[in-house]
Design goal:
Two copies of one chain form a homodimer. The first copy, chain A, is mostly helical. Chain A has 22 helices and six strands. In chain A, the strands form two sheets. Chain A has a three-stranded mixed sheet. Chain A has a three-stranded mixed sheet with strand order 4-5-6. In chain A, helix 3 (about 35-40) packs across helix 5 (about 60-65) and helix 7 crosses helix 9. At the A-B interface, helix 12, helix 13, helix 16, helix 17 and helix 18 of A face helix 12, helix 13, helix 15, helix 16 and helix 17 of B.
Chain lengths: ~450, ~450
């Protein structure tokens, strides 16, 4: 049931907390979805939220904690005892449990893990903690339904019912051999349709997509999106089934990747949100601004070399912001298309061909814009040499900016660096500098100063 | 089964097509996933791809067509007869079928719909065509499994087996009353666990999330992501169950939204890919570049007003690219955070508070950068007035740029315009102009020219 966050609701809750009206609080949140509870809590003060979290049963709390803002979660976990955290962990699926534990300080991890009552659960969580959080192993859960290929449908259904109680959503039933190696899958639908005496080996689908435990998270996302999968089994180097990844985790990966790339393109270096503190936001924004400052100082120095032009050709200096802005815009456009293509895994063919295409494209755009600017300068300044110098430079700058914008992400990608850092201030700044250098060099050649 | 796209594979296929070795072609693609076939076809010429598409059975072709690039699909459909298209359509789920038909020219739509053999299917497709493609109705499929609350589990299973044959993936079984109104849901797991004599009314889960047929696609995506849903039922204004949306369609919505916002931030106005034609790419990129040109010309005109400063204070002009770049960078950073917050629906509180926060943030960043620049100019130019003028201007420009970057997206959002257009060239250009205006005005006040 959705709950609407109104001022009255918040006021009511705050007074309940102040007066310790626990029953009323519990009634308010009865049968409310944990994602909605999390949203309500984020509107309260930390102490109020903590009070309510302590009140709710551990099944609800554990889910609420998964939905709440990361910073708040960290603070809440800091206030709870190892035993209290372990109780929450017991209620979570292994993948979420491992995520929560991974966020704890090193010495608390140990304490919490030792307090987990279900030892099997604890063992699985410890296994998951080994994997990098951006790998298939870091995404997968140990909860899955698997059956042996040598069983028949009847015993399979029996066994499954038992396993299914621990698994929130059954997507596929995985079929393994006696060594635990993944052989194929059964859909619930198939099982529903099959005769109870059939052997699993005769009814399962042997062609099954899977990923290896060390595959990167974004590769897994691309595979699941490409093949429209809702769950994918994860195997280790021996082909043994070790976990499964569900689409809801992948939706988060896709969203996070996209958000991160967007922020990088805008010159924000860390994952921040509008509601983060000014200190966090400053830390995320200052580095690129600092780079911009260095770039601006370099541009000023370059212009210093050409200052003999200033007295006679002042008009040249009026157009530097235009040249710099166009260089930046073209560079960002080119790099964005390449970065997006690389992320979606559809940039194919040689680097040379890519650059040639970008050059033609920039030449078309550049020619159109240069002609417009030529006539503008000619009419407003009645100086044909100046008009030629400025428009030819604009053309050259646009072509070079396009090439830089295409080349840098491809180069970074080849070197194994996330090309997303190249869209935005990095490209803008380097294109500003190159643009101004090219501009004054060409102008000097044509006008001669 | 995945297939690796090698030069040999493509060469082999091309020679098969040239020599009409149909059997070999079919063998190559046997049990290859349609998404992989689509990738292979995109590496061939259009004529080769068309030849192979005509060869494959209509079940495969229909899925391949859904995975292939939109432009290629349009061309392929242009080559097929209405009857051929109808055969493909017959194999597709209603949502995909409606998407394909929606892309056809108006007069062909009619022809194709009339050729569809399964009249029930045709009727459902026609119904789906009524909805806006960015609404819940435009995303939903008519294929779903529903049972009446008055049945018992036994008859329910029997009915379900029949319905399930038409539904690729059963997520939930929806429970409706005699009027077809959505009452709740049953999970396959629950059904598996329930006694066969129970009445559905006694075992179903009454609390079920749903969306209305006219809800916007991105709202549906936010709901499904928030509540981790894998499918959501869609109801009409009367509460009658009319379809369901599955997570794989939502994954595409999320990805497309993110890609679009990223491109807008980079100054690309239409949905393009790295592999599109130069004409398409030019059309998508030129508008913002044109805006940048206008901006640059305006900046040049503003500088023209201050040209009396040029002879004595040339150094001021050297720093205009720095000021413009910083104004642009800060504006893009601020707007990106707001745009992302709005998209994720977590920008709350008043506009005034937002602007105040952004002002403090910009003031912190601005002060740090201004102090750095002050010392640089002081040391390199030994002119304290100039150093004060340039650094004070930088501070002012950063604060104003931050405010503009925050205000414009919020304003657009309030007016019902997608704020994503505000990140990127729009903000950069307006901040360039304001930045230069502020810069010279403050400099004039301090230095006096």
């Amino acid at each position: 049931m959705a709950i609407e966050i109104t001022r009255e609701l918040l006021k009511g809750l705050q007074s309940c907390v102040a007066n310790q009206k626990d029953k009323e609080i519990l009634e308010t949140f009865e049968s409310v979805h944990h994602a909605d509870i999390a949203e309500v809590l984020e509107e309260l003060t930390f102490e109020e939220a903590l009070y309510i979290i302590r009140l709710l049963d551990s099944e609800t709390t554990s889910e609420v904690l998964m939905d709440i803002d990361e910073d708040t979660r960290e603070r809440v976990l800091g206030e709870l005892s190892a035993k209290e955290i372990a109780e929450e962990i017991d209620e979570l699926d292994t993948d979420d449990a491992a995520d929560v534990i991974a966020e704890l300080p090193e010495e608390r991890k140990q304490e919490v893990i030792q307090e987990i009552e279900d030892k099997e659960h604890a063992k699985e969580i410890v296994e998951l903690l080994r994997y990098d959080e951006h790998s298939a192993g870091g995404l997968m859960a140990k909860e899955l339904v698997k059956v042996n290929e040598n069983w028949n449908v009847m015993s399979c259904v029996k066994e499954m019912r038992q396993q299914a109680e621990e698994v929130t959503r059954v997507h596929s039933i995985y079929v393994v051999d006696n060594d635990g190696k993944l052989k194929g899958r059964l859909s619930l639908k198939d099982l529903l349709m099959a005769s109870t005496r059939s052997k699993i080996a005769d009814v399962y689908i042997p062609n099954v997509d899977y990923v290896y435990v060390h595959d990167a998270a974004d590769e897994v996302a691309n595979i699941m999106r490409k093949y429209d999968l809702e769950a994918i089994p994860v195997v280790d180097e021996l082909g043994v089934l070790v976990g499964r990844i569900t689409i809801d985790d992948i939706v988060d990966v896709i969203k996070e990747e996209a958000d991160k790339d967007y922020q990088l393109a805008a010159g924000i270096t860390q994952d921040v949100e509008a509601d983060d503190s000014i200190l966090q936001l400053t830390r995320a924004r200052l580095p690129w601004l600092f780079l911009g400052l260095i770039g601006g100082i370099s541009a000023a120095s370059i212009m210093g070399f050409f200052d003999e032009a200033l007295s006679k050709n002042a008009i040249l200096f009026m157009f530097t912001p235009l040249i710099a802005a166009m260089a930046g815009n073209v560079g960002v456009q080119s790099s964005a298309i390449i970065v997006q293509g690389l992320a979606n895994d559809d940039v194919k063919g040689s680097v040379g061909k890519r650059l040639l295409k970008e050059m033609s494209l920039a030449a078309v755009n550049g020619a159109i814009l240069a002609i417009l600017l030529f006539f503008f300068v000619l009419v407003s300044e009645s100086d044909i040499n100046m008009a030629i110098a400025i428009s030819v430079s604009l053309f050259a700058v646009i072509v070079v900016a396009g090439l830089i914008g295409t080349f840098i992400p491809l180069f970074l990608h080849k070197r194994g660096i996330d090309p997303a850092i190249a869209t935005g201030p990095f490209i803008t700044t380097s294109n500003d500098i190159f643009g101004i250098l090219i501009y004054f060099s060409i102008a000097k050649l044509i006008i001669g100063f």
